Amino acid sequence: MSRLIRMTNKMGVLSTFALIALSSEALCQDKGQEIKALDFAKQLHQSSPGAVLPTYRNMLEVLGAAKTLDKVDATSLPGRNSTLILHGTPTVIEQDARTQSNFLAVGEDQDRIWKGVKTSDANNKDLFPDAVAIRTDHGALCSGALINQDTVVTAAHCFCSQNIPELVIFGTSIDIGAQATKVVPVDKTKSMPKMQCGAYKDGDVGLVRLSQPVDIAARRIASQQAVDSAKAVRIVGFGKTEQGTSGTKLMVDVPITSHTCQGSNASGADEALFGCNPDFELVASAPLTDQDSCNGDSGGGVYVEEPKGVFSLAAVVSRGIKTPSVRPCGDGGIYPRLDKGAVNQWIKENAGSALP
User: Fold this and answer.
1) Residue 331 DSSP label
2) Engineering a disulfide at 156: which of 185, 193, 199, 209 sits with its beta carbon 3.0 to 4.6 angstroms away?
3) Rounded Cα–Cα distance for residues 257 and 260 (Å)
4) Is 50 exceeded by the pLDDT of residue 77?
5) DSSP state string for 231-244
6) Which residues contact residue 23 at a Cβ distance below 8 angstroms, ignoring those fewer than 6 apart?
7) Orientation angle between helical segments 52-65 and 31-44, nearest 10 degrees
8) Count of CB atoms within 10 A of residue 21's CB?
9) Positive or negative, the Cα torsion across 129, 248, 236, 72?
10) Confidence of residue 66 (pLDDT cuts 50, 70, 90)
11) Which residue did the predictor score with more confidence, 21 or 173?
């Protein structure tokens, strides 16, 4: 979970459907350390408090430099002021005033997640048990979210390229042999995509029906008001990381750029710039961090917080934005909302049992 392919979907093809272990060092950062790093980065830009992008990038560089240090502050990083360098050119979406404003609005929240981390808390409890992995009969990996006891919502393109969802995996990894993992076969006769392949204007949303109900709490779909007022979304999926591995459930927070693909910035209108569909698609990007979603995160849950500590399901992972193409993943993503019009009605009509 850190990158996203531009204008492509995010199914991950697995040569071997097994857990690839990831080191905790690669996935996690101490929250107190992150806040100290942000404070230190701000000190570097005191003369220009609006320098959002260099502040964010410097914060991440401080975290990287601090891996071998006990603490992060000006005294523990002598000379770092002159060596911190911006890597990469800020993109159109990163320079968007909405992206920067929403980053600043949530940036200092102690509960915010800067870089992808596992969904397990300090007591090893999975905070998103409804977030699942989906294996197709052609060996592709997608993600999804449980919306009632026998229905998982995912991306419609997980049914494309001759793929048909075959197994739904509940747990924190795709390791089918793990004790905490539950594997449920898919009822293929009742599973369906909303759109035909490539017809994103019709909604990149699909439903995977389980062959049997599960005793796991389903996630409620967010209200329109909750999504419209959110500053950031939390993305949960099993996709590819910076290390090139996949199969572990990770989460990350990403500032919102456009709630409904109906705004604009100095470079043009959202629809033309990002390749999103007005009214029902949300656009989000984390400035200069490579942190959003990538291959294998397709269909994964996109959550908003309402109220504090309680997350509801706002959208699913669809594809990368149209412009620009700077990184293989991480330039920003497009997420079809589940609360909007035709998409919401289609889900209600085809989800089987009632939604929570």
Assistant:
1) S
2) 193
3) 9
4) no
5) SEEEEEE----TTS
6) none
7) 130
8) 10
9) positive
10) low
11) 173
